[in-house]
Amino acid sequence: MNWQLGTVVELREETERVTSIVLRLPEWAGHRAGQHVDVRLTAEDGYQAQRSYSIASAPDDDDLVLTVERIEDGEVSSYLVGELRAGDELELRGPIGGYFVWEGALGGPLVLLAGGSGIAPLRAMLRHHRATGSTVPVRLLYSARAERELIFRDELARAGDGGTVDVRFTLTREQPPDWSGYGRRIDRELIADVAWPPDERPLVYVCGPTGFVEAAADALVSLGHDPGRIRTERFGPTGS
Amino acid sequence: MHISRGFHGRRREDSEPGRVPPGQYVTGDFPVLSAGPTPRVQLESWTFALRGEIDEPRSWSWDELQALPREEITVDIHCVTKWSKLDTVWTGVSIDTLLEGVDTAAEHVLVVCDGGYTTNLPLEDLTGGRAWLAYGYDHEPLDPEHGGPVRLLVPHLYFWKSAKWVRGLELRIDDEAGFWESYGYHNYGDPWREQRYAGD
After folding, report:
1. CA–CA separation, A4 and A25 (whole Å)
2. Is residue A49, in this structure, part of any structural domain at all?
3. 8 Å CB contact of A51 and B82
4. Residue B78's closest CA among A50, A77, A120, A234?
5. I need a surface site. Which of A58, B13, B157, B192 has the fewest CB within 10 A?
6. pLDDT tens digits, A192-240
7. Which residues pair with A8 in a beta bridge?
8. Which residues of A touch B194 (CB under 8 A)?
């Protein structure tokens, strides 16, 4: 898998700490929704640093989008969210990972559970679902600490049509006065409320920080969901 | 080489030069990466098996494993997702101990685990004091999140080879790709040669 250069065509500030990097990649051979890339930065003296980032765009989108959260003291993320400018070139390789992916042939019904910036690969799946006109029923639950930390909020809310695609939010720390979504951390009850029952054998994707993913996956298993139908991606700060 | 405009990076002050493989950074955390839910295992029914191309299959219960000679192992570990963790301390049993007296023509191993995870590696890499069944981390029982009750520990390869929730080794004449190896990750996974993905 070769390294290639992409041009940053746009930077979208999603939240205070999260930016979407829109890249044009002349050599990109396509990806599947849920996959990630490795990004490599090189300093003038040849020093390099690499990190992995999920792809937030669908295979059907024109440009590749990486949605990056700036981690406190993050060597690479603080460059990508802060220093990088439109017109810069960024070196990456991919796509990587073939398990945490969704495409129509895998069917459903689909349950997507996102914590924080873990929404990125699930957003790719949701966009792919829409772009291909899939009739697979989807339920998405997105957990963030506060309203201002919700990424893609408007887009996700619009995607929820109350029919095939059902989108819900939970805010775990601060809820605005007129908040109509959930207001607590993910737990067994919340998942039972959102997900299809185990006997419908939903295909479940969980992505977020370790604590979120462990809680969600444990709750799913305890409700009787088949562990073999639960795919997880755990990530988040791996500080000092 | 493409220079990233405005990137200076953080030079490695956290370890001596040459200690960390190319493309890796040092973390003090112990990140968790797994493809599915964490299996919860009852120790009473836990067993570890050697099977496949072997004169006689062997198996150990939890108590039998505990009765085998234990070693304390201090090693650096390297995850393909770029983090490395230095001087991690494990307690476990050398795979050499389990293979004592085993007669096999096998050259490959498929590691099998709770939850259906598998990984493959050459039998040679599990011998010579380079691999263990680890049940302790930092002088405590190994957390389920990190592979407890027992995980494989093969620190000279990328850490996905150190399979969590390990239940057995299938000794094989031919090589069979494991879980991540089937999804484009490198078949061998030497961090010092940066063998992350197929073709590296």
Report:
1. 8
2. yes
3. yes
4. A50
5. B13
6. 999 999 999 999 999 999 999 999 999 999 999 999 999 999 875 543 2
7. A23
8. none
